[in-house]
Write a structure and sequence with these properties.
single chain, 398 residues, mainly alpha, two-stranded antiparallel sheet, two-stranded antiparallel ribbon, globular
Amino acid sequence: MKRLTLLTLTLLAAGANAEPMSKGEYVARAGDCMACHTTENGAPLAGGLKFATPLGAIYSTNITPDKNHGIGAYRFDEFARAMRDGVAKDGHRLYPAMPYPSYAKMNDEDLRALYDYLMNEVKPQPAANRESDIPWPLSLRWPLAAWNGLFVDAKPFTPRADKDAAWNRGAYLVQGEGHCGACHTPRGAAMQEKALSDSDEQFLAGAELDGWYAPSLRGLNMSQADLAMLLREGRSKHAALSGPMDDVVTHSSQYLTSDDLNAIASYLLSLKGNAEQPQPAQKVSESAMNNGHVIYGRYCATCHGSNGEGADYAVPSLKGNLTVNSSNPLTLTRVLLEGAQTPVTQAHLPYSMPGYAWALDDQQAADVMNYVRNSWGNHGAPVNAKAVKAARELIHTP
C-alpha cells in the first residue's frame, strides 16, 4: 500500500496557499506529466520512474530544462515533434509508453504553453536518463517508425460540429492531454491501443496493464456531479479511487477547473457500450458463498457494512461497484491483498484500507471475493485460488 511521501505532503500543504498556475503548468497537470516523470522522493520531472513492459522495463526521462540530461536544448519544433510523433531531438524513436499517440491530438497553443512552462518555470535537474532493460535486438528503435505508421494518427483534435463546446472540450482532454486510453483501452498484439477515439467502441472499453485492470469507462452508471467529484477528490458519495488512479488524481485531475472536470464527465457519460456492470449470475458453490460470508463479516463488514453499502463520502459501496463487478478481477484481488489508499488532494488526506494478504490464503481470498461479487445484486464471474496466487506473486506480498 502506498504511503504519504514528502512530495505528496508538500503538494497538500502547498494547496492551501496555492497561487494561480500558468497556462503551461495547467497543461502539464492535465497531461499528468508529474506522475510519470517523477520517482518517489525524486526531484520533480527528473525522470527515472520504472514502467514494466512485456519486453522489459523502461524508465521515464528527465524533462526538466537541463541541457545535458533534460530537454533544455530542444527548440519548440523539436519538442512538438517528440510530443506528436515520438521522435527525440537526436532522431531516436521514443517508446510509446510515452503516450504520444494521444498527445498528437493536442493543439499548438497548448503545446507552446507546455513548452514555455517546462523551459522557464521548472528547475533544471542534472539527472542522467537510465537505459531500458529491454535486451538487444528487441531494444532497437527503428521498427517503431513502422509501428507509428500503422497505429498513430498524428493529427490534432478536430471538434465535432454536432456536439456542444463542453462535450468537445471533454473529448479533447480525454483523448488528448489526459490520454485516458493509454490505460483504459485494450491493446492489440503489437501493444497498440485498439482505438484512439470514440469512433470505435473499443475506446476506453477496459484493459489490463502493468499488473492492474483499468475498467471500462463506457456506459458509466453515475451522475455528472459524482463523476466530476471523483476526479477532483478521489472519492464521491458511493465510490472511491485507488491504485494507479491515486496518482492521476493526486498529480493531475484535482487541479483541473470545475468546467473541465464537468466537460470530462459529460463526455465520458455520453459513451455507450460495455461498462463493467453486473452480468448474468455465475455459478459459485454454496460452500464458497458461506465461507466468503463468514470472512466478509470478520474483515470487511465493519467498514463496508453488512449489506455492502459502505459509508457516504468515506467508504465505497460494494453494490454495483465497477471494480467488484469487473470482468477481470485483478484490481479487486490486489486491493484485497495489498490494501488501498484514496488520493492525496488539496482538500483531503487519504483514507486507507488495510491489505489482507497476511490473513487470507488463496482460497479464502477467492471465497470472500466470490461472495462480494455475487451479493447485493452483483453478479461477477467466479474467482479461483489460482488467480489469487498469481496476483499475490505479482505484487510480491507474503
